[in-house]
Amino acid sequence: MPGERPLAALHRRRPPRVLPVVLLTAAPWTWFLLRDPLGLVGDVLAIVLPVLVVVGVVLLLRSLRRRGVLPAVSLLLAGTVAVVVPWTPEDAGTVRPDAAVRLAATNVTGMTSTVPALLGTRADVLVVTEDDPAVDAALAPAYPYREVTMAESHVGVYSRYPVRLLEPAGPDLPGLRVAVAAPVPFDLLALHVPRPWFTGRGGYQATPAEHHRLVQAAAARVAATPGPVVVAGDLNSTDRARDYRSLVDGAGMVDVVRDAWAGPTQVTSWLPFLLRIDHVLVSRGWCGDAPRRFGLPRSDHLGVVATIGPCTG
Question: Longest Cα pair distance anywhere in the chain, in angstroms?
Answer without folding.
Answer: 95
